[in-house]
Predict the structure of diguanylate cyclase.
Amino acid sequence: MRLASTGGFLVPQSLRMRIFAICFIGTHIPLLSFAAREALRGQVAWGDIGILLVATLIGTAGALYGIHALLSPLKLSIEGVASIGRGEPVAIGPVAGPDEISELLRRVNEAAASVHSRLSTLDHAAHRDPLTGLLNRRGFFAEVDPLFAARIGGAFAILDLDRFKAINDRFGHPAGDQVLRDFANRLIAVCPRDTIVARWGGEEFVAYFPRTEEGAAQTTLATLLIGIEEVPVGPPGLPPVTFSAGLVEAGSEPIERTAERADAALYAAKRAGRAQVLVERDLVARAGE
């Protein structure tokens, strides 16, 4: 047992041992007083002392059990506060009772819930695009980096809305914002559930299709292109908004290099007349002709 010096006295460093020491001394005072009185009288009643000793030991055992029961919630509080400091979720469980320890546990739960809510808000703000609700560039990298590191393969596309600046200039930024929101929703709706979609910046979007061949991803994006031509995005009165996309095989190299290849395919699609999904292999085939 480690001891600490306080005011000239040695006391245990552990709170549990401090309380036990107080209880131990308190429960032994009657026994020691009785034994001292008997010794002064010169007639020691060993039977009575034995009874008192057994009763004292039973009381000491009960005190130990009670101390453990009382301090267990404090240990939960300490672990809860440590989890809060690490940004981990805390779930101490329902707490009932009007005593101070129950109040402490309730406060720890409240603090944990408040911190978790704030961290979630900050994480959402750091990784989500406020206009569309999609992942932003940082959030996209956070999602796909582990998948690229695992080399699970797939297809990667960069999509760019055609002549979007003209929409802002002619119809105003609120109309342009509505186009972006609607397009984001349509993109999410047409892609498979495991597709990771993000707003890359401005009118550019990206989509990573894990474990998906380029042909299947191309079909998905072509379906989206036909859909927004038939049912335009944005507020009523706008001309149909199209997009161009560059699509490449992904997973065998870093995401940054994959994005560069997709960007090159995107600009080739723009040069070829816009409103199309250009697959990198087709671009390579054209270059070889």
Strands lie at 3-6, 9-12, 154-161, 196-201, 204-210, 243-250, 277-279. Residues 46-86 form the longest helix (41 residues). The CA atoms of residues 78 and 108 lie 9 Å apart. The longest strand covers residues 154-161.
